[in-house]
Amino acid sequence: xxxxxxxxTALVGTARRPYRGDLLADAxxxxxxxxxxxRPAVAADPAPEQGRPDEAGEVAIQEGRPDEAGEGAIQEGRPDEAGEGAIQEGRRDGAREAAPLEERPAVSRRAAExxxxxxxxxxxxxxxxxxAAAAATGRRVPPFVLPELLExxxxxxxxxxxxxxxxxxxxxxxxxxxxxxxYLLEEPTGETWELGGAADRLAHLRGLRAADPARARExxxxxxxxxxxxxxxxxxxxxxxxLSMADEPFLESVLDDRRREVRQAAANLLTRLPAxxxxxxxxxxxxxxxxxxxxxxxxxxxxxxxRGMERDGVRAKxxxxxxxxxxxLQQVVARAPLGVWARPPAELLAMRIPEWDSEIKAAWVRxxxxxxxxxxxxxxxxxxxxxxxxxxLPPAEQQDLAAAFVNKHDLDSQxxxxxxGVSSPWREGLATAVLRKIIQVNVHxxxxxxxxxxxxxxxxxxxxxPLVFSxxxxxxxxxxxxxxxxxxxxxxxxx
Length: 495
Hints:
mainly alpha; 24 helices
């Protein structure tokens, strides 16, 4: 059967145009051929020497021996000892190299079919959620999905986090033979600190840090000088989990690292420790610039950015549009312990700042984000509702603040950004606030609801589907309910 016949069958459906063989597997074979730059193969009817689908409906992809025209043919492989077909690569000498056997079971056929639909555009924004949920099960994707999934990962870095596990050994085997998919070889696979690549070692360090912070720190310290600059920058950020004064001596030493990104990451963590040496130095600098007298805050920005300031994370060169002194002032105030001002944030915000008002308040926002201070985050969110401030608060409080903001704020880009910063899944309080907003806006601006409806369907707890379905018969709410039902079924298939 030719490629045209294969495509025709796929378009009209096997019920109207029967296809003798495994349509998905043969299509996957042709996708691999075409991406490898080979001309379409003419597939014969399934014969005894061709591979049969295994119990999970999977088949193998093989690149056959060179044909008379000197080009390799791709054939279905015979099931291997694990009950799955092998992927094989043709060589000029006619020998075949089999892909390694898989160690993990695949997701269910129904889950795989839903993944194909998502990749094809059916609620495509749910792909990260599907991948995360599938990876949590310890399973992998079936071979026929690999070409499209690896190609999507090439274009979208944000979905790569779980592909190292989900692609299985076949996926890594393919990635080693296609330079455009080679990124997969840098993703975590579950190997250990000693044997894994950079991503595996990062994942191992994160797990160890969560279980035993001191042991993780000592593991990192022991081989610090042998790590690459990029790895040092990634590894030091892991210490944010379980950060304490026990980490301070090591982080203080990292401030002398040759790489700016490494020094910056260490300075950010030390900023969260009010008793650290860096915090004390920053407090001295901030009090030299800012004084609180009565109800007035007087400000005099730094005259220069010296080497000591740079070592402590102050960047000398400002972004375009900001003056040097304003830039240095913001960084010094943001990194000074918030307790140095000795007054509640709401009281400080009510004071008069004759000069440099916007710079000081922007620095307090940045300080609340850097130092993860809940009291300051609440106060600064009331003054300037920035989504980053919500990270400092527990999920339940995030949702309460966001619900109050939705109730009193018009639908605009700021509301969308605030909701985008709220941890999911959204519980009933925030869900009903958003649904109420959808109904209100639907009366006068139904064309403006697209992003809010999508966000609600993607973030509301799928278990609230019955509540949403019965909340209102208006069409946008029905769309939210339909997406919740889709996600509920998706997660059920992966369990």
